[in-house]
Amino acid sequence: METAGAIKAVKRFGDIAAGVAEKISRLSRPVLRVLTFSLASDAVARASAFCAQIDKGRIDVIYAVRSFSKYSVKAHKSYRFNEESLPSSSEVASTLAVAIKDLGVRRADVQLIIPKSWVAMKAASLPAAVRENLPEVVRFEFDRLTPFSADEALYDYLTGEGTGEKIELFIAAAKAGAITAYCDSLAERGMVVKSVTFDMSCLATLCSFVSGYSSFIFAEIDRCGIKSGTVDDGILKSSSSQDFKCDDDVLMAVIIEDFLMEQKTSSGKEGEEGVERPLILFFRKESESLAEALKTRGKISFETLNNLQHKIAGITGLEGARTLLIGGVLELLWPKARRFNLLSKGIRDRSWKPFLLTAFLAAVMAACLLAYIFVPVQTETERLAEINRQINLRKAEVKNVEKIKSDIEAVNKRLVLINNFRHDKPLYIDLIKELTTVVPKNVWLTRVRIADTQANIEGYAPSATSLVQILEASKYFQKVEFASPTFRDARMNMDRFQIKMDIRGSKTAEAGNEKK
Questions:
Q1: Which of 98, 101, 270, 459 is the most exposed place for a label (fewest CB within 10 A)?
Q2: Is residue 398 packed enough to be buried (19+ CB in 10 Å), middle (13-18) or exposed (0-12)?
Q3: Does 394 or 186 have the greater pLDDT score?
């Protein structure tokens, strides 16, 4: 009982400490920005970016630079392919190699923009205590949080404000196969992909940069349909779309209004004051008449991205696919962009920050330390004696804490052992339950034997052959076959059978299959 109470006390103390640390970190950020200011920071340093958007039947590329917080597009170009499918990895590699020469790109970070249809987005929350090991925890819980496993997917996540006890996560994940093929083909030609993002994230970044809003709803509209997303505190939280099944401007305007009103309702209000989120729309060139139809109806208030282009220094031509490309380069060049990089898997490099003012403060502290040395030794001796007395008083508490730590380690080892056992092979009770479920009621089992990797059953059935097909369809069994010839029992008018089968999920069985 005392051990359980001590564990609860330690856990409670850890939660309180995590909450206090989060508040201190939030309050200290402005001071830290001043202490770490440098002329070589991301806000003023020169940088360049080369961005390529992969879409059906086309590849759009753009080259942009940032210098002293000014952004300008140096060149952009479109390459056309078969309209029915996405370009292959070899086509992308050869096209970008030509584009780099055509656009005069010397040195730049390369970013790929993939379609949103490849990406699954998921919101989740985790305890605040895992903040220090968040990448490892997300990887461990990845198959629970998303439709993919961590090994077969490329993913990234952003963290919201959350609460003192929870961390809010927004995860974007995609299957690694096609993306890895693109990256490998580009690497063979000497082009290293630094980042992989998706089109709706780029559009969200562009809207945030142009409008200055941190929370808003945005949408891209063409004659085929509408794609919309919700941004909260600079983070893309969700994305959805709807196709138009008509070609009349009025009917499409009604569909757009209903769709956007639903998005506003599901996203809620902004902040504690309940302010309605701004709505930013981007109309492709062929759908500009829809903007007039929406303004004429007057049921929703919105801003258009097309009319805000004058706010972007050095960037013009916000029409067509180039709009997303501009958002793509802004994700690389804009220091305030909160972007997804699916190649990172949640791991971000911690860049070294210069401490100009800190150096001066350190010198002042060193002077104070030298002055402190001349304080009478007697004062320090008395303080040391008091410390030793306090240590002696707390030796018993330290021993109890050490014992609690050892108990926790023992429990964790047992949990690891149990989890490894559960993942290495299926539980026998699950196999028995599966046999009970799938075997028909007119089949009699006289014997069931389950080994590490194999199961054997014997019994009677009206048709033993159909039983093999039923077992082969089970998620627990594979390689189902007769262990011996079947024969007809005249007395029971049924087939007597012996069937053997491998257990799915057994590591030994899977290793054997790989060797074959």
A1: 101
A2: exposed
A3: 186
Element (H, E) at 407: helix 395-424
The reply to whether 350 falls in a domain is no
Residues 124 and 141 placed together within one structural domain of the fold: yes
Interatomic CA distance for residues 287 and 300, integer angstroms:
18
Range of the domain at 26: 2-37+355-374
Q: Is 484 found in the same domain as 472?
A: yes
pLDDT in tens, 246-300: 888 888 888 888 888 888 888 776 654 557 788 888 887 777 788 888 888 878 8
Q: What is the pLDDT of residue 318?
A: 45
Structural domain contains residue 344: no
Shared domain check, 51 and 23 = no
Q: Are strands 279-283 and 303-304 parallel, antiparallel or unpaired?
A: parallel
CA torsion 390→391→395→399, rounded to 10°? 120
Residue with tokens 């057994």: 506
The whole-number pLDDT of residue 315 equals 54
* Alpha-carbon span 386 to 388, nearest angstrom: 5
* DSSP state string for 417-470: HHHHHHHHS--HHHHHHHHHHHS-TT-EEEEEEE-SSEEEEEEEES-HHHHHHH
Residue-wise over 347-374: b if at least 16 C-beta within 10 A, else e? eeeeeeeeeeeeeeeeeeeeeeeeeeee
Task: Establish if 339 belongs to a structural domain.
Answer: no
Number of domains composing the chain = 4
Clarify whether residues 31 and 66 are in a common domain: no
Residue 374: is its pLDDT beyond 80?
no
Nearest to 113 by CA among 167, 173, 53: 53
Check which CATH number belongs to the domain holding 505 and give it. 3.30.70.2830
**CA neighbor of 64 nearest in space, from 216, 230, 233, 205:** 205
307, amino acid identity: N
CATH number of the domain bearing residue 103: 3.30.420.380
58-67, strands of its sheet edge to edge: 70-80, 58-67, 47-55, 109-114, 193-198
Tell which wins on pLDDT, 214 or 354: 214
pLDDT at 196: 93
Last residue within a domain, chosen from 271, 300, 333: 333
Average pLDDT rounded to a whole number, residues 304-315: 57
My answer on whether 69 and 81 are in the same domain is yes
Paired strand residues for 50 = 63, 110
pLDDT for res 320: 44
91-111 pLDDT per residue, tens: 999 999 888 888 888 776 789
Q: Does the pLDDT of residue 147 top 60, yes or no? A: yes
